[in-house]
Amino acid sequence: MATVLCYGDSLTWGTVPNGGRYMKPLRWTSILEELLGNDHQVINYGLPGRTTIWEDPFRDGRNGVSYIQAALETFGPVDVLVLMLGTNDLKRHFNVGAFEAAKGVEKIIERVRMPNSQDFPSPSIIVVAPPNITEPTGDMAETFSGAVEKSQYFHQHYQNMAMRNDCLFLNAAGVLQASTADGVHLDTNGNEALAKALVPFIEKLLG
Questions:
Q1: What's the structural domain count of the chain?
Q2: How far is residue 47's CA from residue 68's CA, in Å, rounded to a whole number?
Q3: Which of 18, 37, 45, 72 is the most exposed place for a label (fewest CB within 10 A)?
Q4: How many CA atoms does the CB half-sphere of 8 hold within 13 Å?
Q5: Residue 183: domain span
Q6: Model-level pTM greater than 0.85?
Q7: How much is the average pLDDT of 103-125?
């Protein structure tokens, strides 16, 4: 049995558009585990608000690069790491774009491949470019001001970065769209689509 660690933000955690958390069976990580035949352990380590490398002045503990090694040791040895981060990097107060978000994911990959105190081998990595942000609603319209256009470049910058770092790459925008309810998070169809799209990648890595 292999261990697949899914390291992400609210899209991985299972945030319901406009509030709440999906029940466990509806989260893409749980669907993925079921599609793999329950032969492998799929761990959901999503955290709402998590960024790639940025410290959020409004929410503590959201810097993704700071916690990745602890996560790998906590759940290790990890065979496959699924990285889907960057949506929160586009919040207005960070003032960065998809290029910087991709560079942030690259820093996480570098940290993943550093030696660890348990001597666990480095996992295979699947980089997932987050889905495009469409039409943020409510408070998120202010939080993600300017992010709709920036998110259109996730695919390009993430794919280039993944190739440069010998990672598999999946463009989430190619298989799903953000919920029309809030323009950011995944609806149930999006969760299912992402899980299905990841299956062949993981099966390829695990043989």
A1: 1
A2: 12
A3: 37
A4: 26
A5: 3-206
A6: yes
A7: 96
